[in-house]
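ok so dumb question maybe but i'm new to this and my supervisor (M.) told me to 'just get the structure for Putative peptidoglycan lipid II flippase' and walked off. so i did the thing. is this what she meant?? sequence i used:
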Amino acid sequence: MGLGRASAMIAAGTLTSRITGLLRTVVLISAVGAIGQAGDAFATANMLPNSIYQVISAGVLTGVIVPQVVRATAQKDSGHAFLAKLLTLGAVLVGGITVVAFFCAPLLVSLYASAGYSPEQHALATQFAYWCIPQLFFYGMFALLGEILNARRIFAPYAWAPIVNNIVSIAGFLVFMMLFGSNLTDVAEWNPLMVAVLAGTATLGIVGQTVVLVFFWRRAGIPLRFDFRWRGMGLGHMRTLAKWTLLTTLIGQAVGIVQTQTLSVASGDHPSVFASQNAWLVYMVPYSMIILAIGTPYFTRISEHAAAKRDAELRGDIAQSIRVLGLFVVIATAAVAAAAVPASRVFSNGALEATLIAPVLLAFLVSLLPMAVLFIVQRTFYAYGDARTPFFFTVVQASLVLVFTLVVAFSVPVEWRAASVALVQACAGIVQTVLATILLRRKIGPLGLGSTWAALVRFIIMALPAGAAGYGVYLLSGGADGWMLQDKLWGALGAAVIAAVAGAVYLLLLFVFRAPELKVAMDTVRRRRG
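this is what came out, is it supposed to look like this??
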């Protein structure tokens, strides 16, 4: 499958998944509120399997599995024997970790949110955790199956399966509100049945998306069987790689614990854990639709070129992928920034909450373009089998986040905690990207990115007036007192209008100044339609 078609397929699936995911969050916020103790308790509990899963996924799957599967595909049986052993090993490890995490639920809740939670809020979060932690096993199997399919150039199922999770969750959350009501922010309002319905629904959605992926796995012609004969599958080499990627991700999770503890103090009346997660969700819409959709096929091709030692082609992939990503990421950043308040209104139960959450979203957006560059640079190290270098530049990033988050904890008022923590993370990400790029150049030689950096600067210059035009539409609508903040639906419509205006101005400027990247993008669309 070509890069253009693969990117289009992933983007379409990701777009549908993100839209239904946003609807899922809107319904959840209607049930538990955007700012309040109950919402933060659920957010903390539901974050536990996600956090552990990130250690497994980013720490092992992305950095280790994809390159190994690409190499195994060249074997006589197309790697089927290796995949059976890998799937078995993954199921055993993830299953064991899930069991341990389940019995450690109270300790995990304390680890993430002991600073600001009352005993009642802590107890509610623990009840939620018992229902949410089983998600970890299904998250792990979903990621393992999906990454293997990606490595074999079967991209669609992994991108489309999460839609099942969102549909199941939306239905379950609506049933919850029919049974128990909405905007239940007070922890005293909750009972075990309410906890079971809400958190059980969240877990059932993850089970559903994994089952769907298993169906597509079988249709792809890959035998689905277990094989416990792990000897000879290269565990020593994989363990060496996994050691560094696991350490990298564990450091990130340690920083996440400090961040959550810092945010938990603001729980109740100010943006805290749940509000920060919702702002991150909006941030992840352009990240997923652009960076993951375009970058994932490039990662597979970069891994192939690295395995074949085609360094010249690999450098060309790096430059091309960053330019293509930059073309879209820059305007996405400007558009979302201009629409920050209306977009935040979609994920809140009032105009005041929207204005409180918007600065958190703006702080996250500072790092969107650098994260696009880092996505390609970091995965290039993984393609060369180098997980040690990413560990070191992640240590630098994590150290900066840790130090300055502690500064925030002791010096910033609680109402600005969430925005400050987000800004610290974004700025540290910029430093990490610069350092990673320098280290990659030292590893494989000159990257030839001079024209690429110049292109990114051009994109930024054109995106600034485009974003200003979009923000002007917000002001003309009445700003904080206008129609865009009247309810969630008007907020979504307002954000769409602002994004459309910003995108149109950006496209016009690219056309007027004859940006060569625009022609490349249009040619790609024509070929895809043909």
